[in-house]
Design a protein that fits this description.
five-stranded parallel β-sheet, 5 strands, globular, binds D-ribose
């Protein structure tokens, strides 16, 4: 499975650790940056990641910034993206089971790295439930 990943300066430390950890688990990681702790603008990495997921170059994505909100707001401008913000494992499960989020967004400044790992694992191992949730997802695009 190919996972695209991006962060701004606030999430870069967790991003790098997640890349190393997930690669050891056998996932192919596509890193969209940033790779520096210098202040940068999250849309500069969020848009390229969203495009890669929309084109099928990656199966899904992970994005981190300070609050997660900047990433989620930017990613969700893309019609093919359902970016879900999760700060706990139950939300990580529900954002896949109910919302079929194809990008997981986490608030690096508000969770521990251990929590970030647990959220990622829960999101990856959870299946979308379909049914009434598919009906709701079908109503998301602007008509
Ligand atoms: C960076 O200081 C911070 O604004 C950013 O990481 C994020 O929280 C924005 O939504």
């Amino acid at each position: 499975m190919k996972i695209a990943i991006c962060s701004d300066h606030a999430g870069v430390e967790y991003k790098q650790k997640l890349i190393n950890w997930l690669e050891k688990k056998g996932y192919e990681m596509i890193n969209f940056g940033t790779d520096s702790t210098e202040s940068m603008d999250y849309p500069d990495v969020a848009h390229p990641l969203a495009e890669a997921v929309e084109k099928g170059e990656a199966d899904c994505g992970i994005a981190l910034c300070g609050t997660g909100d900047g990433m989620a707001i930017t990613l969700n401008k893309h019609q093919g993206i359902r970016a879900g913000l999760a700060w706990g494992t139950e939300i990580g499960r529900l954002v896949k089971a109910h919302n079929n989020a194809n990008v997981l967004v986490m608030p690096a400044r508000f969770i521990s790295y251990r929590m970030a790992q647990q959220i990622v694992m829960k999101w990856l191992e959870t299946d979308f439930e379909g049914g009434r949730h598919q009906r709701r997802i079908d109503k998301i695009p602007i008509r």
